[in-house]
Amino acid sequence: MLIAELVELAERIQKGQTDAQLVEVKSAREDCPKKLYNTLSAFSNQDQGGTLVFGLNEKTWFKAVGVYDPLDLQKNVTDQCNQMEPPVEAVFTAAEYQGVTICAAEIPGIDLAQRPCYYKGAGRTKGSCLRAGGANLQLTDYELYAYEAYRKQLHDDERPVTRASLKLLDPDRLAAYISKKEKQKSQLSLADEEQVYEMLNVTRSGAPTLAALMSFCVYPQGLFPQLGIEAAVMSGYGTGSANAVDHKRIEGPISDMVKEAAEFCKRNMKTKITIDPDTGMREDKTDYPINAVREAILNALVHRDYSAHTEKIPVQVLIFADRLEIHSPGTLYGRMTIDQLGKTRPELRNPALAVMAESQLGPEIRYSGIPAIREEMKAYDLPDPVFENRRDEFVVIFYNDIRSPLAMRVAEDQAPYYTDAANTTGMDIPADADFPACSDKTTGDLLEFCRKPRTRKEIADFLDVKTIFYVSGHYIKPLLDSGYLAMTMPEKPKSKLQRYYTAGSGPAPEC
């Protein structure tokens, strides 16, 4: 980076008073930090890489303290980089800042086929990390497997299920699929039945594949109990199990589950009836466009991870007062990122299953793909769907109220919150817009609750959300940015004593 860019980065760090997804701050005033391995691994294992900044002291609110010796620091950091597998090639920059010398080491992200980058002294299993906000977390067994599966092009939908037999497959469904494929590829009719099954991924060495069971078995959950859908309707906005007012376990082959899940959602949606003033025709409009919901459910079933690490986790469909969420086990596959969704052709995690599902459900799905889902939401005057690529799952969220400030948020690997400078929603809504409390009960109730200053833990308990980090990112920060909430200690935003109160109500005397 340029010297001016390093100075600008240091200013942003001091202003924000925190590390970030792409930045790690180390003092290095007395010596080079001894153990940078986790950060080197975490930065290398994300596409954007990351930057180590030396010479700011996090313990004194990121005061510029300088580094002990820029050249020796570079040598020692490089020595640690060479302890990584594959070796990390850092790019160094030094600059004068607030009367002292600070340094930066830019760590490039390595190619997906080379990941994970890990510290050789700890080994691949314990020495591999990923970045989560300002923290470095050890990779799970599933995340390590996901890298391995992509590198070796392993497709779990094609794995043979040796304890099953062809007798478990519905002969009519299977015959219809084979007939359709033989019409598309006339050469298939020249092969015998066993060869056809192998070429169409119905079997592997005579045993049915997982894709075939999920597509043609009457009850695949008899072999894989959790490869279904857990659908639930929640009474409010939180995720606590006590809030569930309706629950259904949806099972069967994928084509049946898609239909049943879509019907469950439609049955639990509100329907608004309008009369066209020009034609007098009646129009029924559900909370969400059912075609978009059906497509998202199909995608969740077809593109989920079917490895042994996730086969005990069902797809979830959750209906809340303000949103509908679809959770699919496994992260985005391969090189695909949130920003690329709907713009580039994805690599397929489950190619055999995708072909079988398209053959069975193609005519019934009126639209196809994420662009069509977005168009459906737009036609309903609703916010764009939110896509979140979490550590162990991919989540699609539909919001049913365009006025909700919480509907403005997007996944953390996109621009994380609505601001004047980065409006990712495509809607011209100012940050200080006057959102009526009645349009979003969660926001209104939360602001009322915070008329007395509250801690993050108190807010999380109030919202019935278990993860404080999630509450901070998806509830507190958007309301701080929009001016609805304020901090009791704005000069120390990371303080453990920090509390949040509704702007205009003022902090309570005891604070």
From TrEMBL:
InterPro entries: Fic-like_C, RecG_C_sf, Schlafen_AlbA_2_dom, Schlafen_AlbA_2_dom_sf. This is DNA binding domain-containing protein. It comes from Hominibacterium faecale. It comes from the Bacteria. Pfam families: Fic-like_C, HATPase_c_4, SLFN_AlbA_2. Residues 21-136 form the Schlafen AlbA-2 domain. Residues 447-500 form the Filamentation induced by cAMP protein Fic-like C-terminal domain.
